[in-house]
Amino acid sequence: MLKIKALVVALILLSGLYSECHAISEAQKWAGVTSPSLTSPQSIGSYNAGCISGAVLVPINGTGYQMMRLSRKRYYGHQDLKQFIEQLGQTAAMQQLGSLLIGDLGQPRGGPTLSGHRSHQTGLDVDIWFLLANRQLSASERESWGAPSVLVGHSDNINYSAWSKANESILEAASRMPAVDRIFVNASVKRELCSRKTNHDWLRKIRPWWKHDDHFHVRLKCPKDSKACQSQEALPPGDGCDAGLNWWFSEEAKHPAHPQKPPKPPVLPALCSGVLTE
Predict the structure, then answer these.
(1) What is the pLDDT of residue 6?
(2) Chunked in runs of 10, what are the mean pLDDT values of the chain (278 residues)?
(3) HSE of 249 in the Cβ direction (CA atoms, 13 Å)?
(4) How far apart are CA 200 and CA 212, in angstroms?
(5) CB atoms closer than 10 angstroms to residue 262
(6) 118 — phi, psi (to 5°)?
(7) Contact partners, residue 168, CB within 8 Å, separation at least 6
(8) How many CB atoms lie under 10 A from the CB of residue 179?
(9) CB distance 69 to 103 below 8 Å
(10) At what angle do helices 79-94 and 165-175 cross, to 10 degrees?
(11) Which one-letter DSSP state was computed for residue 231?
């Protein structure tokens, strides 16, 4: 019986190792492509298992924003994402909130990444630091600077030397844009926004998620002309400031049970094969 159990464990481990190697192999293919496809713009598949054809390059500098980590070359996305970043940057500049520091968008043709970033595959996701710059950064600063957390140490408390009214204004401006589907933030950030005695009509799109204490993640809706794009489920009604928010501060949320088997590599839509090899 012990030998059988040992064999089962070994098979599970080998299966996990195979899945991991397969995932890396697939990611290498997508990471190795250096230019977008020349076909019409289309987001294909789901945010966690998809690709993009006809992606556009978002300029590394624009009004009110600047790209970080240029060496990653993850500054591609759907035209809608480019427009969103430019509009939010213009809002930040007009309101004198500071310069947005833009993290990852996606690869030239989307798909899985070598870093294991599971989303950002369809050209509709972007990470934006909470830190706001007051000047143009050099190329070396864009590589070496780290995104600071807005929490005090490893606690659930907001660090008000890192968080400001400008952060709230930017989140509100982003949330009110029609193309935005949802915005992921740390649960403590969501709680801070809920505690403000202001209009809450824009908070529905602000969703708590693990980590996200040093940046917020904006996810756009599927473009109307992207018929093969898979939308997420609709957001629940309300502003999200109800008792459900308390769960994120529970032991269950902070220490989730790890699955016994590693997640399987995502299966990309058949259309992505053509996008990769074009």
Answers:
(1) 44
(2) 42 40 77 95 97 98 98 97 98 98 98 87 98 98 98 97 97 98 98 90 97 98 97 96 96 83 81 96
(3) 12
(4) 21
(5) 16
(6) -75, -25
(7) 193, 196
(8) 16
(9) yes
(10) 140
(11) P
Amino acid at 7: L
Nearest alpha-carbon partner for 273 in 48, 46, 95, 30: 30
What is the model's pTM? 0.90
pLDDT value, residue 116:
66
Question: Tokens for 187?
Answer: 């649960």
Alpha carbons 216 and 209: distance in angstroms, whole number: 10
Structure-block tokens of residue 271: 């259309």
How many helices and strands (H and E) does the chain possess?
Answer: 7, 11
- Cβ count within 10 A of residue 24: 14
Task: Give every CB contact of residue 99 below 8 A, 6+ residues apart in sequence.
Answer: 64, 65, 66, 89, 92, 93, 132, 133, 134, 135, 136
| Cβ-Cβ contacts under 8 Å for 153 (sequence gap 6 or more) | none
Residue 142 near residue 66 (C-beta atoms within 8 A): yes
Confidence (pLDDT) at 263:
67
Instruction: Say how far apart CA 56 and CA 123 lie, in whole Å.
Output: 9
Domains and CATH numbers, the chain: 32-233 (3.30.1380.10)
